């Protein structure tokens, strides 16, 4: 079956503009995660969804960042008034169940965001 | 609190062994190991749950020492395909998110 897909694969935007990043998880996966990876750095947790609700939003860096998930499937990460420090690869992952279980996370290919 | 991985980088010749460590200051419930090749998404290797178990995947195995809040990834008789950056992700009890270390870059030369 299909893996996790993300779109767009690359996004170049001007400082101050809003962007939307999309994630299509693996069908049937109830848990969905967003991470950010800056060049040469580790994975920074942003937000976790279980179904359509987000029990952990603790990683969102500022109120310019928001995310939603609809129908227990597709998720959108929105960054308003983008800043240059937002430039990074945004990775989405999904898993069969919550992190509390022995479920591996499957990662998408990521969206490379460049803010000029 | 981000786990600390060591070493930050290691260079091996094909066939040599390596150990990558992941330490946390928090009580851990599970440790997840991933490998990421340049320009690609991280790929799952294994999960170790609280209980000190050891797991294996081909010639890659790992252990989890609850008392020390530390996990180690062992790569034996390394192959060229093992090159990449290895990340540990740790989960504390009661938490749902994984907190990842900064990664260990492994280079295998022929």
Task: Tell me what you see in this structure.
The complex is a heterodimer of chains A (116) and B (110). Chain A has no helices and eleven strands. Chain A has 116 residues and is mainly β. In chain A, β5 (44-50) and β6 form a beta hairpin. Chain B is mostly beta strands and 110 residues long. Helix content of chain B is 0%, strand content 57%. Chain B has strands at 4-6, 9-13, 18-23, 28-36, 43-49, 54-57, 60-65, 70-75, 84-92, 99-100, 104-109. Chain B is globular. Classes of the chains: A mainly beta (116), B mainly beta (110). Chains A and B meet through β5 and β10 of A and β4, β5, β9 and β10 of B.
At a glance:
The complex is a heterodimer of chains A (116) and B (110). Chain A is mainly β.
Quaternary state of the chains: heterodimer
- Distance N to C terminus of chain A: 37 Å
- Structural category of chain A is mainly beta
List the total number of helices of chain B: 0
Whole-number radius of gyration of chain B? 13 Å
Name the shape of chain A in a single word. Answer: globular
Total strand segments of chain B: 11
How many strands in all of chain A? Answer: 11
